[in-house]
Amino acid sequence: MTGKQGSRYDSLVRDCYRSGGYVYAARPRDATGKIGVTRIARLASNENPDPPSPRAIERGEAALCGANRYPGDEVTDLVRALQDHHGPYHFVTGVGMDGIIETVLRVFVTAGDRIAISTPTFSFYGIAAIGQGADIITIPRESDFSVDTRRFVREAGDAKVSFLCSPNNPTGTVTPVSEVSEILEGISGILFLDNAYVEFCSEDYRPLLKKHGNLVIGRTMSKVFSLAGLRVGYAFVPEWLVPFYMRAMTPFALNSISASAATGALEDRDHVSRARERVTGLRDLVCRECRYPVIPSGANFVLVDVAPQRGCDVASQLASRGVLVRSCESFPGLGDTFIRVSIGEEWEMELFLKEINRL
Fold first, then answer.
1. How many domains does the chain have?
2. Domain that holds residue 329
């Protein structure tokens, strides 16, 4: 359809989608073409540079042979594997953390309901909530990016769903279990606790599920399990929520290849241990060697304050030298002097430190 034809109907588009949307990190292929190099340090998207576990690859390849059938047993097997890995919790699955978020909001939220979000943080919470017609309340973090729990409880009020990310994206800040428990006791709605990066810190929020029936813990296979391209999300949920989630979720959302590969990945605990060890070691290296202030992080990335320069300018300069990082200007409430740097391979971090320190 041509632009002229489309203009006949674009007035039908909802106002909430006329601007904004998720801001993606720079793509390596684009940067490669611009600067004429073939080896790019990919430090913009919080990926795991390690390839998937051989067990994940083997199971995924086997499932591909049956891709003519809709997924079924593969997802059931994944839930069993999650219980073997974590313990006897109740799980739901989705297409990435994003799919979990969308389905949870679909269960609870109708137009005009209030959604509370601790900011600055992952923008998709707000994007998904707007899609449900929700009214969004943003609750700013402290100057050190910690959460003021009393303020959170006070301002979340009667919100249907509240979002808290720990370790937080993009700051890396870890909220202690005791503070999350205080929030759960103080709010009347659901707390969605995003634990996408929790494997890289020492906090364990799972015991809270036994005490609080309003807690959902979102997880992903994209980070420590090296399956970002397969988009596998899952969540710990209270038992009462499972049937409602299943009714609201998109049918056959998680494909059989992704579910089977994730099952194999969960069996390879050594893969997780190696990734965690690499990330924590190189994260400490960046904190020691970077000449700009680095915010303490419990994730597989760090937030760097490059003031008085702007984050977008520094990201552009680094890209011209073969290092892709994420400018954080698109995170509301964060300011314009920050970049987010994923923890990649050793050579990538060495190149980052070399280039950032000579800007």
1. 2
2. 15-50+270-356
- How far is the C-alpha of 42 from the C-alpha of 343, rounded, in Å? 9
59 part of a folded domain: yes
Under a CB-based contact definition with an 8 Å cutoff, are residues 226 and 271 in contact?
Answer: yes
CA geometry: angle 142, 143, 146, nearest 5 deg: 45
37-51, 117-131, 295-309, 334-348: which has the minimum mean pLDDT? 37-51
Kindly report the average pLDDT of the chain as a whole number: 93
> Residue 23 — pLDDT band, cuts 50, 70, 90?
confident
pLDDT in tens, 136-157: 999 999 999 999 999 999 999 8
Distances (CA, A) of 295 to 64, 92, 146, 303, 353: 42, 33, 11, 5, 16
State yes or no: cis peptide before 120, omega within 30 of 0. yes
Q: Which of 267, 292, 318 marks a domain boundary? A: 267
23, 97: one domain: no
The phi, psi pair for 139, rounded to 5°, reads -115, 100
Question: Is 103 a domain residue?
Answer: yes
Q: Are the CB atoms for 292 and 309 separated by under 8 Å?
A: no
What's the token pair of residue 193?
A: 């606790």
- CA-to-CA dists, residue 341 to 42, 104, 225, 337, angstroms: 9, 30, 19, 13
pTM exceeds cut of 0.90: yes
Look at residue 183 and tell me if it is in a domain: yes
Alpha-carbon span 298 to 175, nearest angstrom: 10
